[in-house]
Amino acid sequence: MKDIASGLSRFAPAGRTFHGSDRRAPLREGLRGCGEYGASQTAGRFYPIACVALEVTQRCNLDCTLCYLSDRAEMTYDPPLSVLFARLASIHSHYGPGVSVQLTGGDPTLRKVEDLEALCREINRLGMRSCLMTNGIRASRAFLTRLAAAGLNDVAFHVDMTQERAGFHSEADLNRVRRKYIARARGLGLRILINTTVFGENLAEIPALARFLRDQPEVAFVSFQMQADTGRGVLRERPDAITQASVMRAVEQGYATPLHFDAASVGHASCNRYTSVLTAGGRAVSVLSNRRLVPRVIAALERVDRNEDAHIPIRASVLSMAIRQPLLALRAAAHLVGCVMRLGSGLLRGRVRRQAVFIHNFMAADALEDDRCAACVFMVATAKGPLSMCAHNAQRDVHLTTPDRVDGPMGRHWWNAAVKDLSDRPDLPDLDDPNIAPIKRLKGQLRARRKNVKGTR
Ligand code: SF4
């Protein structure tokens, strides 16, 4: 792991509680500060954040070649539910109801299903959305059925060649796994998301993979995440061939249509590229093809928004916009009908579905850009409040060794990740201590290094 945490003190969590009156204001100001709050920007305008990760464990049943965890992460204990509930309260304080909470890790399915059920219920109670982010290995049909019954909204399966699953030699091979996972979640009322890391060894396969995903009618959201030099992964710098432009081109090639990734913005353009498509019977059409209409609809929706505090209820706002601006609503409706008609022969082969396509450009740990972190739409809940995911990953051990304060009916307690239970004192763990860092609990680069040192003795 790069020893860069000491140079990152400028990236501090936002505090456990939000003290302002407009929850969208911090993101809006962050985007304004870097010239990214234009007419096509949706972040900070309609929602205070895109999503917040709640890491429920640092354990994982894989050891990906581009893992964002730190070498020492798996030495730590899982946070007790009381700690996770306190972090959920902090997320709610900052972003209010409607925010998407990602139950993640490590792999969250290594926690007891009862713990995840309790978290789903609490997220529901707070009026937020929940998404299980998993490699899918332990997410059986029975497991997902229980979580869906507890109120889980979304499940995101991350599958790609960085995971080195035994017996799979290409992304095309891995489509068998993707199909199996989609089938497990089918009919449970969950929105299905599919995540893929784009790296040097699979870039050439992205068009074919994008085509495969386009043709999965149950998949509502597709995310391509570009290789980033952060965490314990043994692959490091991103190859020059992987750029936002090259990934957009590869995805467009797969969808076999222009996708207009620049029409609507979700946060900083260097971080995120987003588009929305209609699909049917092996064809796709971009919904954002009318570049003049998109900012007009965004402006009209903003004008009818009376709730500056959190997420705008989009259906009610569309209805309200239609009543106030019927001509614009008619133009938007005509555009949508045109998109459906352009699906052509696909309409004979399948139902029309909407799919969101996302390209995410995480930063390298030693090259964080301040303005992007200040305008981040993808946060992690820490002991001291939400923090940009890129900043968090660059200094994960600092956050893992920061104790959580838990105020409960039995008074004030502390939890730190090197100790199993709550305690009366906020003692800090020393993750370099070989007694709590035996080699079998290391992964990634540090384990590889220590193994090499042992081998040469
Ligand atoms: S996590 Fe990183 S790449 Fe993603 S939006 Fe935040 S700052 Fe940008």
From TrEMBL:
Task: State the CDD domains in the record.
Answer: Radical_SAM (cd01335)
Q: Which domain of life is it from?
A: Bacteria
Q: Which InterPro entries does the UniProt entry name for this protein?
A: Aldolase_TIM, Radical_SAM_PqqE_MftC-like, rSAM, rSAM_sf
Q: Which cofactor does it need?
A: [4Fe-4S] cluster
Q: Does the keyword Iron belong to this entry?
A: yes
Q: Is S-adenosyl-L-methionine found in the keyword set?
A: yes
What's the protein here called?
A: Radical SAM protein
| Organism of provenance | Ruegeria haliotis
